[in-house]
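forwarding from the other thread:

> can someone predict this with 8-OXO-2'-deoxyguanosine-5'-triphosphate?

sure thing
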Amino acid sequence: MIKVTCAIIVNADGLVLAAQRNATMSLPLKWEFPGGKIEPGETAEACLIREIKEELHVDIEIVAPLPANTHQYPNVTIQLIPFVCRITSGEIILKEHLDFKWVAKDELLALDWAEADVAIVKYYMES
Ligand SMILES: Nc1nc2c([nH]c(=O)n2[C@H]2C[C@H](O)[C@@H](COP(=O)(O)OP(=O)(O)OP(=O)(O)O)O2)c(=O)[nH]1
């Protein structure tokens, strides 16, 4: 099982950042919460701060954890470990994703999410 962290980044207006995977990634064009695989010896929190800097070019702080979701894709099982986060500095520059948008909480489920993310979206909407 691969452990993957992801960031539910909330802005000052309460909107949530959704990021679209590019056409050459696995799960092409699906929407996700940015993040990535935990490296050996790394904490989930440190992983997420590193990944967000690499992918979005911003610094974040972690606000709160949400329940992890284990999901079996045909070729891989991942444990997706979410944290609610805030940007502390920088402007978003996409380094890997195709697109991003800020979405109202009650409109999140309308996006075409990576399957593992749907449960996380629901946890967040109920939180
Ligand atoms: N970062 C991230 N990955 C997710 C999410 N939902 C989801 O199913 N994944 C999957 C996609 C990948 O199989 C795996 C890790 O994604 P990644 O973005 O860090 O790694 P990657 O593109 O290099 O993965 P891969 O193409 O090598 O399989 O987790 C999510 O919300 N955020």
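The chain has a mean pLDDT of 98. thats all i got for now
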